[in-house]
Amino acid sequence: MNLAAGKIYKGKEKSFRMFDRIHRRYDLLNHLFSFGQDIIWRYKLSQGIEKKDNQQLLDLATGTGDVAFSLLKHSPRIKHAHACDMAQKMLQLARKKAIKKKLSPKVSLLQGDAINIPYVNDIFDVVTMAFGIRNVTNPSLVLTEIFRVLKTGGKAFILEFSLPANKILRKLHLFYLRHIIPRVGAVISRDKHAYRYLNKTIETFPYGQSFCQLMQTAGFRNVRFKPLTFGVVTIYQGEK
Ligand SMILES: C[S@@+](CC[C@H](N)C(=O)[O-])C[C@H]1O[C@@H](n2cnc3c(N)ncnc32)[C@H](O)[C@@H]1O
């Protein structure tokens, strides 16, 4: 695990291009590799939403939009979701899914960089980012940006991969990440780098208390984290 808080991660500047390359198989592989758990993880994010009406949501690194759609479905108090990503083809797919789910009037999709969020200060009640912050060059800068666009009292929820604390589970999970996912992912996505990149970024990204420190440094208070599914993913939350 890389504990260098706020380290600039080189080689991730263009990670969104890789997601554009695999966009057709992205949802399928998510469900397959997580054994369907990804749907539950996104649902769990919605459980932290406050019981306050007319909330404005920003979902960063939205990809094909599943977090925004899940929150709109499970948290009726969210009035509108702004969903932002760098990858055009992932956004195109999100647009088609929004139409199919009849959610288009409640979702605005926008191409934008999480490192330089294309919105003014203090306008969102909730900002979410699922499996995105691991893919940016400077996670600390993204957290500072999230803090900037949140209203005072607003909440950030970050869902990201982590590693199980139990040594045996951790070994088994690392075997799965290093040997099974890259091989199956290469065949199904037809991209031999994408699912090799996944395990490298998971193994080098700060998680648990280390990630909470990054959030606190960005200004968040009441920072908490909750590992899910034996710790293979973690939900972090913090308040402005
Ligand atoms: C693993 S996907 C996560 C998608 C979605 N949040 C989900 O839960 O399935 C990571 C996404 O981050 C996006 N991304 C990478 N760098 C980004 C950046 N600097 N700003 C915004 N999005 C970025 C990629 O294009 C990709 O769609």
Model description:
- With 240 residues, the protein is of the alpha/beta class.
- It has a single domain, classed as Vaccinia Virus protein VP39 (Rossmann fold), CATH 3.40.50.
- The protein is 43% helix and 22% strand.
- It is built from nine helices and seven strands; from the N terminus they run αααβαβαββαβαααββ.
- The chain has helices at 15-21, 23-33, 37-46, 66-74, 88-100, 139-149, 167-189, 194-204, 209-217; strands at 55-60, 78-85, 107-111, 124-130, 150-161, 221-228, 233-239.
- It has a seven-stranded mixed beta sheet, sandwiched between helices.
- Helix 7 (167-189) packs antiparallel against helix 8 (194-204).
- The longest helix has 23 residues, at 167-189.
- The radius of gyration is 17 Å and the shape is globular.
- Bound molecules: S-adenosylmethionine.
- S-adenosylmethionine (SAM) binds next to helix 1 and helix 4.
- What fold name stands as the CATH topology? Rossmann fold
What ranges have pLDDT less than 50 throughout 5 or more consecutive residues? 1-9
Quote the beta fraction. Answer: 15-25%
CATH superfamily: Vaccinia Virus protein VP39
Number of alpha- plus pi-helical segments: 9
What's the SSE pattern? HHHEHEHEEHEHHHEE
- Highest-level CATH class: Alpha Beta
- How would you describe the oligomerization state of the chains in this entry? single chain
Helix/strand-derived class? Answer: alpha/beta
Number of DSSP strand runs: 7
How many separate domains?
1
Question: Based on the structure given, which CATH architecture is correct?
Answer: 3-Layer(aba) Sandwich
* Rounded radius of gyration (Å): 17 Å
| Apparent shape | globular
Unique ligands = S-adenosylmethionine
How far apart are the first and last residues' alpha carbons, in Å? 28 Å
Major β-sheet annotation: 7 strands, mixed
